[in-house]
Amino acid sequence: MSLLDPIAKLAIKRLSQVKNVILIGSGKGGVGKSVIAAGLAASLSKRYEVGVLDLDIHGPTIPLLLGLKKGLKGGREGIKPIMANKIKVMSIAFLIGERPLPLVGDEKSGIVLEFLANIDWGALSYLIVDLPPGMGDEMIIPLRIFRKFRHGFVIVTIPSKLAISVARRLLKILRGERVNVLGLIENMYDIYPSERGRTELLSMLKEFNLSLLGRIPYDPHLEEVISGRNLKTLESSKLIRCVNIISKKIESSLPA
Amino acid sequence: MHELSLAGALVDSILEFAESKGARRVISVEVRVSELAQLDINLLREAYYEMVKGTIAEDSRLEVKVVSTEFKCNNCGKKWTLNDVRRALFESASSYRIADEDGTLDLPTHYVPMAVHALITCPSCGSTDFSANMPRSLKVTKIEIER
Fold first, then answer.
1. What ipTM did this prediction achieve?
2. Of A102, A104, A115, which is closest to B112 when you measure between CB atoms?
3. pTM assigned to the model
């Protein structure tokens, strides 16, 4: 990162009062990252100051999950996150609504950095970052910023050979970039009866010396939970009971 | 209002750079700012000169060039400027304006210029696939130091 890049410098400065950054990623889309990120934020916010950052600039869903739409306020230190009960929430959706955001090259890295540079998080014990799928600019640029802080990466996958092959590629990047990987969450494990995916997953855990943070079953009522569009319905879901156990493990790895 | 924090980050960046090069003083700094970001240049400049006081950049000259925004449609080839779509941008972003502490309502592009890609389309063919010339709100283009 260039010394002469004030926007990158500002992005780093904005995180100066954040004690821990928890990055939630999978490489592949559709495995449940955002729901788990929102669940972790809800769980940790019962005990700590928590923020959740939706970095999926092409498909932001955290506002949908938490029942938030718009109403940003700005100031000298940038844009203030919107509150969902005690959670500070920020998403590009608060700036553009439901419109698509097609971007390429420098425009993509530019928007990620400018976005990070303009969020006034204040003091937080945990900032949960819902990373986008893929391994391009939208994931690499934030990684360069976040790895400068006390951080932990949580991989989310489903026990499918396809998803695991992408998670392996992601893990190779994370290992090369010396990112602190806390472990893996196996999501929707009960709807994949084949033992092959599970065997593949266990082999990956062994190969990368990773711990399994938890297994989350498919919640058939999740769609209703999402349609409920508020934190209360999310907190009453089956998923959150599993996430509560996982959040304790994260806390012990990264104390507040 | 975020011009003040931009100025702070600019000063921190040039001081860090100058010190890494063993500079005794900073003579001049040139920055380009995006028209799309609609920054208050006077405020940026005032904040810069205030913040460099007591540093090796105290007597430096800050030159700010505002880069006009130019768009090009990747579908039909149409070129246009911010002036051509200012009204459309304002209307499209009206529900998402950001209230500042002083009561002004800023467009989302004030903070994140590339959000423009979600807020306008090509005025000729309606495509969302267009390029904009400056993806950052502020960029340092030149720094003159004395060793």
1. 0.93
2. A115
3. 0.94
